């Protein structure tokens, strides 16, 4: 059984789908617009100080208590993990001109989250290593998918050198944010109106967020009994966590309460000054002694966000599979974390979406035998 499947997107979902298909002897090709694999997974180091470690500018954790798919995969791939540091007091900053309040949370009051040694990129790399060579093609931006009257699919893509690539396929897995599919890929025949409406209604997870990671020689806040966990109504960061590696350097990262449009107006330098000032305010003047600060604005990533994603999320989005209808029903399959109804937005959701896509492909192949 050997059919050529094209997977668009080399994030966790696309790579996992390629790995599962390859293990079943089903030929596939992964086309990725970026010059790297991982999608919204991005673990990086300070270029001048790689000794300080790698830090996640995308997803950071998983929760083994209720996310069994990623837990089992991490175990199968023999990846090193450690528990997110939560020992000590938390800080709560409620007022502009008052010091933060300090609280000691009851033991086991929060869900235990797990981090990967080397960042989540270690999971991406391990999954990629299970895929045959030359399956993944980078800097290949899919622009159109066409279906002829005989049922044959052609996928058109732009290459980095300005050339155009045409790939034939029996089916296509779209492992992309739904809004990116709706905005950036032309379909012939067109997707039905209800599918387009559904895709456009699914906000891209993290697309309106940014991540700032402040790196220090050591996690100095632990020496005064602080966990590194803080919440703030003052900002610019709304929620802060210890981002230190398992050993060695220290790091703090935060999620922004400040909307993406405000950050865009302020500019990166001003935003990072506000972030540093907040760390000093919360964790004492030692927070000025930065070794590096990493910053990723996801709304600037054209392979992640569209203009609508700059609007802050008011509620958790309603994720799940788009409706199936029309000529494309058995020809394109949607994957990616936003297509999983239970764990949408999580790494777990990306993996479950990949498994579902491969299940559908396998069923199509079995029926065609």
Automatic annotation (TrEMBL):
UniProt protein name: Flavin monoamine oxidase family protein
Domain of life where this protein originates: Bacteria
Gene3D superfamilies, per the entry: 3.90.660.10, FAD/NAD(P)-binding domain
Stored Pfam families: Amino_oxidase (PF01593), NAD_binding_8 (PF13450)
Family per similarity comment: Belongs to the flavin monoamine oxidase family.
Domain Amine oxidase: 111-358
Family matches, as InterPro entries: Amino_oxidase, FAD/NAD-bd_sf, Flavin_MAO
């Amino acid at each position: 059984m050997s059919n050529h499947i094209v997977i668009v997107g080399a994030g966790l979902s696309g790579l996992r789908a390629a790995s599962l298909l390859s293990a079943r002897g089903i030929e596939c090709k992964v086309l990725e617009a970026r010059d790297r694999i991982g999608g919204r997974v991005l673990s990086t180091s300070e270029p001048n100080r790689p000794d300080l470690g790698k830090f996640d500018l995308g997803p950071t954790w998983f929760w083994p208590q209720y996310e069994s798919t990623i837990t089992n995969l991490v175990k199968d791939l023999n990846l090193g993990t450690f528990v997110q540091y939560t020992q000590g007091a938390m800080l709560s900053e409620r007022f502009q001109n008052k010091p933060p309040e300090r609280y000691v949370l009851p033991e086991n009051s929060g869900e235990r989250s797990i981090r990967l040694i080397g960042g989540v990129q270690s999971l991406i790399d391990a999954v990629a290593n299970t895929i045959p060579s030359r399956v993944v093609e980078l800097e290949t931006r899919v622009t159109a998918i066409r279906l002829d009257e005989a049922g044959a699919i052609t996928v058109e893509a732009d290459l980095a050198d300005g050339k155009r690539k045409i790939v034939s396929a029996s089916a296509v897995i779209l492992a992309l944010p739904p809004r990116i599919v709706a905005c950036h890929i032309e379909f012939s025949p067109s997707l039905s109106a209800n599918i387009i409406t559904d895709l456009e209604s699914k906000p891209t997870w993290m697309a309106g967020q940014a991540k700032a990671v402040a790196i220090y020689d050591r996690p100095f806040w632990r020496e005064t009994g602080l966990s590194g966990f803080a919440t703030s109504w003052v900002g610019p960061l709304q929620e802060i966590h210890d981002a230190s590696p398992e050993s060695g350097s220290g790091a703090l990262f935060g999620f922004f309460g400040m909307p993406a449009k405000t950050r865009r107006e302020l500019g990166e330098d001003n935003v990072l000054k506000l972030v540093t000032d907040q760390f000093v305010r919360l964790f004492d003047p030692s927070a000025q002694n930065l070794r590096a600060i990493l910053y990723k604005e996801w709304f600037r990533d054209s392979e992640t966000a569209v203009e609508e994603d700059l609007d802050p999320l008011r509620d958790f989005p309603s994720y799940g599979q788009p409706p199936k209808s029309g000529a494309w029903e058995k020809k394109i399959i949607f994957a990616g974390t936003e297509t999983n109804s239970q764990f949408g937005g999580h790494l777990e959701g990306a993996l479950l979406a990949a498994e579902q896509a491969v299940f559908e492909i396998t069923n199509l192949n079995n029926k065609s035998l």
